[in-house]
Specification:
Helix content is about 10%, strand content about 55%. The chain has one helix and 14 strands; from the N terminus they run H-E-E-E-E-E-E-E-E-E-E-E-E-E-E.
Length: about 210
C-alpha cells in the first residue's frame, strides 16, 4: 500500500502544481489529459470536447504473516469511455461505459507439513451509467458514478486430494446490480467508492 500511496501523492503533487501555477479559464477541452483517482490511479484524455477515454490501475501486496503463508497480490485495471451530453457552468453530465478486471490471490489451507498454495481468482465487470462531474476549480473536478453493473466471479481453488496442487471449487457465479465502487487494495465494495476526482494537467502536443 505504501508504494501505491507514494505514487498517488507524486501524481497529485504534479497535478496540483499545474492547477495552481497557471491561469486556466476554459482550459479543459479537446486534447487535455488529467490524472486522479477512479478505483485506483487514473488517467483521462479528452479526445473531443465532449468525449473522453480513461483508464485506471490498482495494486496491493499483502505480505505473508508466517513462514507457512504466501504473499498475496491484488491487481486491478479498468478501461472506459464517456460522452458528455449536458454542460452547465461548473457541472458536466456524461454517459459512460467501462470494463474492469480484478485479480485477487488467495491461498489454500496448509498441506500436511507444507506451506499453503497460492491461486488467482478473477472478477470481470461491465458497467453502464451516468457520471456527474463538478469542477471545484477550472482544472480540478470531483465526480460520482451512478449506473448498473454485471459481475462475473471466477471460482476459488482448494487443495487436491493428493495435496500437491489445487483444483477448482464449484463456487463461481454472476450477479447484476447497481454500480458499486471497489477498493484497489482488496475486494471491498461500497457506493462511497463511486467517488473519483481528476486534476486536468495540460493539453497533449499532438492535438491541435
Amino acid at each position: 500500500m505504501l508504494r501505491f500511496l507514494m505514487a498517488f501523492t507524486a501524481i497529485l503533487s504534479i497535478g496540483a502544481a499545474s492547477v495552481l501555477g497557471e491561469e486556466s479559464s476554459g482550459a479543459v477541452g479537446q486534447g487535455t489529459f488529467g490524472v486522479g483517482y477512479d478505483e485506483g490511479l487514473s488517467v483521462r484524455v479528452l479526445v473531443l470536447d465532449n468525449v473522453s477515454a480513461y483508464a485506471s490501475f490498482g495494486f496491493y501486496l499483502k505480505g505473508a504473516d508466517s513462514v507457512y503463508h504466501q504473499p498475496l497480490n491484488n491487481v486491478s485495471w479498468k478501461l472506459g469511455g464517456e460522452y458528455v451530453f449536458k454542460k452547465w457552468d461548473k457541472l458536466n453530465l456524461g454517459a459512460f461505459g467501462e470494463w474492469r478486471e480484478e485479480m485477487h490471490q488467495g491461498e489454500t489451507v496448509r498441506a500436511q507439513g507444507l506451506n499453503t498454495l497460492r491461486y488467482n481468482q478473477w472478477n470481470t465487470i461491465f458497467r453502464l451509467g451516468v457520471r456527474p462531474e463538478w469542477f471545484i476549480l477550472d482544472r480540478l473536478s470531483i465526480d460520482y458514478k451512478i449506473g448498473v453493473q454485471f459481475v462475473r466471479h471466477s471460482p476459488s481453488f482448494k487443495l487436491n486430494a493428493a495435496q500437491d496442487g489445487v483444483e477448482k471449487n464449484k463456487d463461481g457465479y454472476s450477479e447484476f446490480g447497481a454500480y458499486s465502487g471497489r477498493s484497489p487494495f482488496n475486494d471491498a465494495t461500497s457506493v462511497l467508492l463511486n467517488i473519483g476526482f481528476t486534476v486536468y494537467i495540460a493539453k497533449l502536443p499532438f492535438f491541435k
